[in-house]
Structure to design on (281 residues):
């Protein structure tokens, strides 16, 4: 156990090794000052529903468990070009399977930069080996997945809810890639290498907070899985709860604007932009 704890603390991430480490003292100072953030927006997302909204660069987003444990699927897009979005595989390759403070949400190539940084998390700080983690990254639940798993299609799945909510902001269905499954409790089994999901253990008021590194469109779905207690087709009504969203003005600009790095001159393959207009910043 202690050996694993040491691994978490001492071994730098791939991003740190490659000279892209985040400025941790910058985020630690901001986190220490969070009681002085000014609230810019506050609203509820009903159970089995989603909302999409803008979080400006320098603002923070809190996804709060209003009445107790509730899983949320949270998607992030560049507000100026929603073709750029959070990609779980890029996150996993450098940061891990789970989101925790000081880990950054990366977009895919050709942009390949942090969209947001996790600033705070009241559900966990740094679990030891054998513990469950929260805030798994992956793909949103979909009607296909739910029908395959439970035999019943569900129109209130996170994927469709997120697409419906984000379309008015210029997001296409094909722009929805991966999400952070906030408040999802899970365990990485070292024997099988599989991730096992568990019922969430949050309490009212628990939250995870993200700092926007650029202007973002954020979509949040209150997952029909509720607290993760199992079959969403049979789940008790009180196990699916609303999520509260709060957006804050931190008063702190990102240390450096993560403008797009054009990797193409050093790339030797047949790179093509993802749409006719090509990538934009
Ligand atoms: Zn879901």
């Amino acid at each position: 156990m202690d050996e694993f704890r040491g691994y978490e603390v001492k071994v730098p991430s791939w991003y740190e090794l490659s000279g892209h480490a985040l400025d941790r003292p910058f985020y630690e100072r901001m986190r220490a000052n969070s009681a002085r953030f000014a609230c810019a927006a506050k609203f509820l997302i009903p159970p089995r529903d989603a909302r999409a909204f803008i979080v400006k660069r320098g603002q923070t987003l809190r996804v709060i468990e209003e009445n107790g444990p509730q899983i949320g699927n949270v998607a992030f897009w560049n507000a100026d070009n929603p073709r750029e979005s959070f990609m779980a595989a890029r996150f996993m390759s450098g940061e891990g399977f789970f989101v925790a403070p000081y880990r950054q949400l990366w977009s895919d190539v050709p942009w390949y930069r942090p969209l947001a940084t996790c600033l705070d998390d009241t559900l966990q700080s740094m679990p030891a080996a054998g513990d469950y983690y929260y805030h798994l990254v992956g793909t949103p639940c979909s009607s296909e997945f739910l029908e395959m798993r439970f035999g019943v299609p569900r129109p209130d799945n996170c994927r469709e809810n997120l697409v419906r909510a984000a379309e008015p902001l210029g997001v296409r269905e094909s722009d929805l890639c991966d999400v952070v499954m906030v408040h999802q409790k899970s365990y990485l089994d070292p024997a099988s290498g599989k991730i096992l999901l568990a019922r969430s253990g949050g309490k009212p008021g628990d939250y995870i907070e993200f700092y926007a590194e650029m202007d973002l469109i954020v979509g949040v779905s209150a997952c029909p899985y509720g607290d993760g207690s199992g079959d969403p087709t049979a789940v008790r009504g009180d196990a699916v709860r609303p999520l509260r969203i709060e957006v804050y003005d931190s008063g702190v600009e990102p240390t450096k604007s993560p403008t797009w790095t054009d990797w193409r001159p050093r790339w030797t393959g047949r790179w093509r932009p993802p749409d006719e207009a090509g990538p934009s910043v």
Remarks:
- Residues 73, 140-141, 157-158, 221, 223-225 surround zinc ion (CB under 6 Å).
- Residues 34 and 103 are 18 Å apart (CA to CA).
- The chain has a mean pLDDT of 84.
- The first strand starts at residue 38 and ends at 45.
